[in-house]
Amino acid sequence: MALSTHRASPSRAWAESPPRWNFDVFLSFRGEDTRTGFVSHLYRELQYRQVFKTFKDDRELKIGAIISPKLASAIEQSHLAIVVLSPNYASSTWCLDELAKIIESMEAGDERILPVFFYVDPSDVRHQKSSFAEVFSKHEVKFSNDPKKVEQWREALRKVANLSGWDAKNYKCESELIEAIVKRVWEKVRPTITLSDSKEKLVGIEFRLRQMGLLLAPEEKDVRFIGIWGMGGVGKTTLAKLVYQRISHDFEVAKLLVDVRKRSLVDLQKQVLSLVLKENVWDDYEGTIFLEKCLSNKRVLLVVDDVDSCDILEKVALDKSWFGEGSRIIVTTRDKRLLTERRIELSFELVRLNDNDALELFSHKAFEKDQPEEGFLELSKCFVDYVEGLPLALKILGSSLYKRDLKAWESTLGKLKKGCDADVFKSLKISYEALDDMEKSIFLDIAFFYTGVKKGRVIELLQCYGFDVLIVIDVLIEKSLLTIDLYNNVGMHGLVQEMAREIVRRESREQPGFRSRLCHRNDIFHVFMKNTGTKAIKGIRLCLPRLEEADSSWNCECFSKMHNLMFLEFDNLIISSGPKFLPNSLIILKWNWYPSKSLPAGFRPNILAELEMPRSNLVRLWDGRQDLPNLKYMDLTMSKNLKETPDFTGIPNLEKLHLGYCDGLVKVHPSIAVNKKLKRLTLYGCENVKVFPSKIEMDSLEFLSLDGCSRVKIPEFGEGMKNLSQVLASGTASEELPSSIEHLVGLTYLLINDSKSLQSFPGTAIFKLKSRRELEMSGETRDRPPAWRQIFGGSSMKRKLYMGFTGLFKRKSPEPVCLALPSPRALPSLRLLSLDYCNLEVIPDDIGYCLPSLEWLHLCGNNFVSLPPSIRCLSKLTVINLRRCKRLQQLPDLPSNDELSVFADDCDSLKMLSKPSQQGRFTELVYFRLHTVNCFGLIDNEGLNNGIFSMLRRLAAQGISPVFLSLSCDRFRSSFDIVSPGSKISEWFDIQSVGDSFTVELPPDRESEWMGIVFCVVFASLKDPDPLEFDDFLIECSSPEIYREHDLRMKSSMGDHLWVSFMPRGQIQDTTSCSIRFSFDAHYYKFCGRTKACRIPCSNCVKRCGARLLYEQDLKNLLDGTTNILKRSREYCDSEEAEPGEGPSAIAIGSSNKESVLKRLKA
């Protein structure tokens, strides 16, 4: 939920923390009049209530002490003051000084001074008549040298007499008067009594309260239902209670219903009605009638906590019409669906605490401090990581570790890795118990086997079991048992997953062979080494982090007892001998590194749906034909000993077949050619395949990969293959494309890179395909490149097009390659054009006019010196990649697009940067990026300093200003990044620090119009990175106050570089802190195998940081003060004469021998 930080609101006002008073009541009285009588009785009654903390001066101050400072402090730290004005009150200068201080401290408050006229007339007090007149006559004589003091006392009496209070003469007895006073005090103190008044640590609660404030909108008069949902233990009840305590005093009727799951409907109705109805309620029907009649004309606050059934809301809060104007009904639940069914549209999900808040809460419980004690930090982080920010678990574990030594901590952590904490388990299991049997089964399957898997894939796998899972997945998400991340992966909170595993563990604590599901290494090894498998086991998943060879006692005979096994997955387990038996009940079989040469002879898995055996030792799957009507997925990738595929006749419903890098594969069974259900066929890297159908008629085929099948020719395609959209056929034995390719009317992507056997550019048949969107070719052809009109068949292409010709036009002779572009009508939909490494020395001047839809332009590794000015006319361009264009000297004017990324790394000759186009304004700027890594020619040239400074100025003034003051802007993406060689940070960045962090002091006025933070980081290159292992370099800017990490990704650099970036205010959380600390962590990635990249920390890479809090005035200075800036900056230039053309306004991002910097711009 986006929160505005630019204006205050009533909803925000109540959400702020209430003042913290040391005392609820300060008693001011004349001791000789009331100490032993009225005041002592009043004090006793206030103390009896226990919730009141009362300051009574003769109890709190020692005789003879210097009371003035302490007394003043006590008054200032008190919420209310009860002033007992008795006949002799004014005769005490102490009392009068006390009263003057009370008036001074509390006059501005909301009726915080409560006068009691104890047998004195309020008029006498107001006008100092009667006994007060006599006393003041004496004061005027005694303090004749200080008349202001006497007047101050008079004014204090006048003001207190004008306040609403109690006249003792109007009450029959003192007890009646005391009761009235205590009642009023309770009304005023009650709203300030919150959980934060106790020792309870409420971390991160203020931000959540502001979220609630936006939904509650107390100033609005409509009736509102507000929902708070989230997993158990995340703090829903705590938040609801705190909201109730802060606003309940504003309602005529206020009721908090907790633990409603455990109470009857009638009992709940009675609790609500007890505030307005004296009659008893006998059944829920009668209670419903009374609720609707009694509350419809009252402003009601009702909190219904932990609702698990719509029946509860139907009997307690069915409809808005039940409640009077301005009513608020707050519902907390673990089930989002319940809110949807009750049409509660105003709701938000309460999520877990971030790592910093979690550590603070845990530390408060474990140490009664905000940070861990010395020696406990790393262990504390382990516990925080384990609970993943769940407040309930943090409290339980932190409390259990209070005042325990390191050994106890280590022991507790070890126990947690073996099983869930009992109290946490009990709380989380409530959500599980609310599921039906099928939902429970699916939940446990996901917890054991499918976390981290794409949602669509999970649905596909579970449907293999015959489950109707579409609705069930949504139910589990709504009940906060499952999550779906930004990448559509299914996940769950770590403690929820641990709860699921504990449920299964309790099926048989001592014998894992009697449990339904197994995923723990030790449990699985126990079952197979002790041969204790049983029919209870339905699923086994063993995924080891690295290759591990099983002990010789591993016994695959254990499978013979698992008659109900449906799911089996082994990964990275090396077994010396394979199984002689596998259960026919298997539905999913995944066995990486399968040891045997074939599947067991008696294995007849008629219901098998997926067979996945990459890196297996298989020579063949089975002999002859097998009838597997349910098998849809087969993966034998990298099974290097596989000689031939099985007969596919008995597998009519196969949809995906993966045979990549099966080096020994020679024959693909011809029955594959007529499989009508197959959608994906991959044979990439199968260099020895000789037997492959010369013609295929797979009507459902969508994807075909023959990459690297150097002995196979691209087959002829049947007329019915309308669904084939992607063909990857690089490095095949084909001398030309088959003419039947014209049958592929759905073809959108064709890849024929490294086609050494290809005699000529593809014939015109391919260019007749109206559906074709992407054509990618690389390597050299024997012919010259085709004319553009040949590629597009002379007709207009309506669909979105992507074209790449990497290295296609290389030549040994120095003759440059020039391309003539067609008219815009021929290419209205071309979105991507890749001409990397094509030996281009000239880019057509009219490129900006001929490609109106172009979004990505890749021109890496070419030989042109400059780009044509028409580039700025590419109004939809988002990426231009010019890396390793060694002869490029200057960038052109760039388009004024809302998003634009320019990559010009390793351009050795680059000396000048472009300026943003002046033809258009960045009115909708979202993101701008410019990378000139390793372009050291920029350092000694005047264009770098003035160019980047000008770019910052133009981007700020033309783009950032109107966008970032808008509440509708994208708070996450709106920013810019510039990376270039350099080692100096300009003095314009008024916050500077050595090392990898800096702290920004926020303005005291939170409503001030600051727009964001501009920072500049100096970072060093890696020392001698291995070019064969090195991949990406990453710098992450992190802070607990920002919504997500702000990072820089790039390839390797040589020498120091600068990263200048803008972080908009919307990306920074609305915080109550007076400062924000930012830190930068550098990492690089090295290859750890064929596909895996390892993240390696890079210490001391970030050398220095600079930052500036950006205001509107800064933008005006940057835009309008150019002349003054130039003059002012000249005063701070080095004494050496500037080189010709070197502008004195340069930001110091050049080499170390040129230190020309700007002093801070003054408003």
UniProtKB/TrEMBL annotation:
Its EC number is 3.2.2.6. GO terms for molecular function: ADP binding; NAD+ nucleosidase activity, cyclic ADP-ribose generating. Pfam families: C-JID (PF20160), LRR_8 (PF13855), NB-ARC (PF00931), TIR (PF01582), WHD_ROQ1 (PF23282). The keyword NAD applies. Residues 21-189 form the TIR domain. Residues 1135-1163 are annotated as: Disordered. Coiled coil: none annotated. GO terms for biological process: defense response; signal transduction. The keyword Nucleotide-binding does not apply. It catalyses: NAD(+) + H2O = ADP-D-ribose + nicotinamide + H(+). SUPFAM superfamilies: L domain-like (SSF52058), P-loop containing nucleoside triphosphate hydrolases (SSF52540), Toll/Interleukin receptor TIR domain (SSF52200). Keywords: Hydrolase, Leucine-rich repeat, NAD, Receptor, Repeat. It comes from Rosa chinensis. This is ADP-ribosyl cyclase/cyclic ADP-ribose hydrolase.
